Every structure is written in structure tokens, then in C-alpha cells.
Amino acid sequence: MSELRVYGAEPAGPDGFTAVRRGLRCRCPRCGEGRLFGKFLKVEPECTACGQEFHHHRADDFPPYIVMFIVGHLLGYGIYVAEMKFEGLPMPVHAVLWPTLAIVLCLGLLQPVKGAVVGLQYALGMHGFGQAAASAAHRNRAGDESERRQG
């Protein structure tokens, strides 16, 4: 399949919402095809589909803060509703239900939220993502200029 290329044009990447949504699905924010994670929270060094580098991301502490914020609000509301609607709920049920739900929600949300943060960093050009795009565009322009000189 041939690609139509306009000289001097920058390669168009996805918009911010698309990059974050792809990261939320644990896919490459650039192409949406490659896997973002090699292990549970270990981000791949680069995309296997498009070659986008991920080694320079800095999604260290922010995803757990987001997950704690979401889970805390969900559980706080759940406990409030359970106490208001089911007044006779025994304490052992509370002691088992809420910590178990907290663990399941935290483990279930941590990877997609980290992917969304990496997608956001990609969309905003943060922590090396912008430099990688700029150097790729520079390499494309240099290659285009050499093609023009030869042709």
C-alpha cells in the first residue's frame, strides 16, 4: 500500500482525547495497535507496531493518586448508601466487603489509569515525547531534502 506524502508536512498524530483513550485501553497512544505494557505495570520500551518509544515516560506517582481518588470516592459513597439503605448490615460483612472491593478496584484501575497518563504525556509532548516527535520530523525533513537534491 503506497503512502501519499506531502513534502514539508508534519506527520499527524492523534489528538489528545484519542491518545488518552488508547492509553486507557492499554494500547499505544500513537497507533492504537501495539501493547503499552509488557508486564502488569511495566511499560514496553517501544511499540511493536509503530516503533514509538516509551522509555522516557514519567508516569510514576500520578496514576496511583488518581486511582486512590476514584476508589476512595466510590467506596465512600458505597459505604454511605449501604449504611442508609441497609441499616442492619452486620459489621463482619462491612469488614470483608469494603476492603475486598477496594483491593479489586485498585488493581483493576491501576493499569488503565497508568496507560491514560502515558497517553496524556504523549499527547502533550511531555518528558521526551515531544523531542522524539521533533527529531523524527527533523529526520523526515532531512530525508526529503536529500531526495529533492537527488531527484
Description:
It contains four helices and no strands. It is mainly alpha-helical and 151 residues long. It has one domain. Mean pLDDT is 83; it is low at 1-11.
Question: What would a concise description of this structure say?
Answer:
The chain is mainly α and 151 residues long.
SSE order and pairing:
Blueprint: H1 16-24, H2 62-85, H3 91-124, H4 129-150
Helix pairs in contact: 1-3, 2-3
Describe the largest sheet: none
Structural class: mainly alpha
**SSE succession:** HHHH
Count of structural domains: 1
Average pLDDT score: 83
Which oligomeric state applies?
Answer: single chain
| Shape, per Cα inertia axes | elongated
Q: Tally the helices: what do you get? A: 4
Radius of gyration using CA atoms only: 22 Å
